[in-house]
Structures are given as C-alpha cells and as structure tokens.
Design brief:
With about 210 residues, the chain is α/β, with parallel strands linked by helices. The protein has a single domain (about 5-210), classed as DHBP synthase (Alpha-Beta Complex). Helices cover about 25% and strands about 20% of the residues. It contains six helices and eleven strands. The chain has helices spanning about 15-25, 45-55, 70-80, 85-90, 125-135, 155-165, and strands at about 5, 30, 40-45, 65-70, 80, 95-105, 120, 140-145, 170-175, 185, 195-200. Strands 1, 2, 3, 4, 5, 6, 7, 8, 9, 10 and 11 form an eleven-stranded mixed β-sheet that branches. Strand 2 and strand 3 (about 40-45) form a beta hairpin. Helix 1 (about 15-25) crosses helix 5. The model has no long low-confidence stretch (mean pLDDT about 90).
Length: about 210
C-alpha cells in the first residue's frame, strides 16, 4: 500500500521527504506534485521501476519520459544543449515547461526515445518537488499522471492514493496542483538552425519563450 506523506507546500518537512526518497531509492514509484499537475516518478537508473511507471501510465517505449532536474547545470549533464537552446530554456525556467533535447551519454539508452535518441527535461517551479529532488540528489524520471483511458491528469492526492494504492510506493501531498499538463517544446530543430516546435500547449505560456 502506498505510503502517504502530507507535506507543507512552502516548508516541506525534511524527515518526510527523506522517507519518500528512500522508497524511490528502493525501486518505488511515487506520485508527486509539480507546477503543472501531479506526476509519476521513479529512480533514473532503475529499469524495473521505469517499466512499472510506464505500465501504470499505459505508455510504451516510444512515449517520451521526462527528467525532473534541480537546476540548469544538472540539465546540461543529461542533454546536449547549445547556446541558443540554453538561452531559451533559461528564459522560462523554473516553470511548467518540458523541453525535448538530444540525450547525452549520461542518459541510459533504454530511457531515451528509441529512434530519435531524445529525452524530455524539466526544471519545475514547485517548492516541495524541488526539496525532494535535493534530498534524492539526482534527477527523477517522470511522466504526467494521466491514467489509461483518461484525458486529464489527476489532481487530488487522496484520489490518487485510492486509485493507485497498490501500484505506488508513495504519494506526496502538498495540496492541489494546477489541473493542466506542462507545455512541451521540441528544441532539437534548433541544433540544425531551425526553430522550436510546440508539441503540446499546456500551462506554460509561449510569450516567456519568445514564441507567442
């Protein structure tokens, strides 16, 4: 059964975050709040956990998973980012954006897109999630918490626990999230002189990226 951690949205309790991080380190999948909607997360280097995350979400290997990062320097460790791409990302982060970039060698091949060798990266603007990432000490592999057959992400931590109590190791409750997925921008065309491509328009506005 999923352990339930109710944390303060602005000053999350460190001891609870350490317990949640320990469950992730042991291969658990957790539901966590973000600045767009709740997400499913697991340890980056744990294949069984990543497979379980995909199964819960109902997606296959072609679905882009996302790395939740603490800062821009960490992002640069997992993606190939040129100066133009970096400036665009910096202009809108932290925030509710997912950027599709060419994966670096630090990303296990099984986690990147099977044909494009790309990965989604996010720097979320959410205090409790940032604190969890700090305690965890590395990016978390993530996907929006949309259940199979549904079109909208789940937003209520209690409802998430009831729906997935036998699938998850933990639910981190820091209150309701905005009920909207992140905006997804493919930056890989910029690597060959092209322009960013909007894959999904979500909570993040395009004006901050100079794309409005």
């Amino acid at each position: 059964m999923a352990q339930y951690f109710e944390v303060h949205p602005d000053n999350p309790q460190g001891r609870l975050l350490k317990q949640a991080a320990a469950l992730l380190a042991r291969g658990g999948v957790a539901a966590v709040p973000t600045d767009s909607s709740y997400a499913l997360v697991c340890h980056l280097d744990d294949k069984p956990a990543a497979d379980r995350l995909r199964r819960i979400r109902g997606v296959d290997a072609k679905h882009h998973l996302t790395l939740l990062c603490r800062d821009l320097s960490e992002l640069a460790n997992y993606a190939r980012v040129d100066n133009r791409q970096f400036r665009l990302i910096k202009s809108a982060t932290p925030g509710p954006y997912t950027f599709i970039l060419e994966a670096s060698k630090e990303v296990p091949r099984r986690l990147s897109h099977p044909s494009r060798k790309t990965i989604g990266l996010r720097l979320p603007d959410h205090r409790s999630l940032q604190a969890l990432l700090e305690v965890h000490g590395a990016p978390l592999l993530a996907t929006t918490l949309i259940l199979p057959g549904h079109s909208e992400p789940l937003n209520d931590a209690q409802a998430i626990r009831e729906a997935l109590e036998h699938e998850l190791a933990a639910v981190l409750d820091a209150g309701a999230c905005p009920l909207q997925a992140s905006t997804v921008i493919d930056l890989t065309p910029m690597g060959t002189g092209g322009e960013p491509e909007v894959i999904r328009l979500g909570r993040g506005g395009l004006a901050a990226l100079g794309l409005a």
